Amino acid sequence: MHLILPENYQSKLSVRETEEAIRYIRETFQDEFGKEMNLSRLSAPMFVEQKTGLNDNLNGVEQPVSFTMADMGSERIEIVHSLAKWKRVALMRYGFGVHEGLYTNMNAVRKDEDLDNYHSAYVDQWDWEKVITREERTIETLQATVKEIFKVIKHMEHEVWYKYPQSVYHLPDEIHFITTQELEDRYPDLSPAERESEIAKEFGAVFIMKIGGALKSGQRHDGRAPDYDDWELNGDIIFWYEPLERAIEVSSMGIRVDSAALSRQLKIADVEDRLTLPYHQMVLNEKVPFTIGGGIGQSRLCMLLLGKAHVGEVQASIWPDEMVNRCEEHGIHLL
């Protein structure tokens, strides 16, 4: 169990005030985010059929929660890890045009997650996806989109400050960009997580680009499934988080694979057998649009803006008894 217990921690809001603030942040952010990004809110599934290949495979080792249904025979149904691939198909099915997109409230179960101050078995995020052109599959498009998202998050900080001035955690005024290879070159003796904290502490907010492929050292900065993000055109939005004295990731996003990137990355990951799955066939045959998309953690954003020490303060989930008890001893009240 990995747990950080800040000294002399005391929440600025009571549990009931926190619940009110959570509702305010979630409702306000999604409305502003949708308008800024030209996204329509859609309903989304909590589970998908295994055979479609639509579920997010994360790092390839996490096992989804699965079950069978009375009217579906022996077909395995999986609770989603995320909607990374489902959204792209939805944009095709619902007739979205270029520069139009969708967002949805995504709820997932990741039973193999290592629980700590940031990570829960329950994942709640705004999953979003937007249609772009083939020519817009560029670093410039990626960075411009990151800046749009950062602007909404920064504006949300001001909104929370007006309503809860005693509790808001203040964010930097701009976001910087760096690649995973530049990070390794800069901090060759640190682990990827340590590199993220160092660069976040220096700049306040950073978008770390090009996650998934091997670096010069032969190691990967972090895992990424090979069949949704293009590893050359993706990244994470992270902030320096003073209450825990380390980086906090709020969003993972990227321009999605085209047929060439899909084939290349599946070969690197040694999972070319996925090419026969329906979703992958659609990408290979360009039946789905070119898109950019990602997820923004709802509980992570609430935690960041309210200066909370544990994601369990802004999310109702299940935690080991030892974690619950130790948190209580240090003034951290898990929902």
From TrEMBL:
Pfam family, one: AsnA
Listed PROSITE patterns: AA_TRNA_LIGASE_II (PS50862)
EC numbers for this chain: 6.3.1.1
Reaction(s) the record says it catalyses: L-aspartate + NH4(+) + ATP = L-asparagine + AMP + diphosphate + H(+)
Subcellular localization: Cytoplasm
Pathway where it operates: Amino-acid biosynthesis; L-asparagine biosynthesis; L-asparagine from L-aspartate (ammonia route): step 1/1
GO biological process, one term: L-asparagine biosynthetic process
A GO term from the CC aspect: cytosol
GO molecular function: aspartate-ammonia ligase activity; ATP binding; catalytic activity, acting on a protein; transferase activity
Keywords: Amino-acid biosynthesis, Asparagine biosynthesis, ATP-binding, Cytoplasm, Ligase, Nucleotide-binding
Family indicated by similarity: Belongs to the class-II aminoacyl-tRNA synthetase family. AsnA subfamily.
Protein name (record): Aspartate--ammonia ligase
Gene source species: Xylocopilactobacillus apicola
Phylogenetic lineage: Bacteria, Bacillati, Bacillota, Bacilli, Lactobacillales
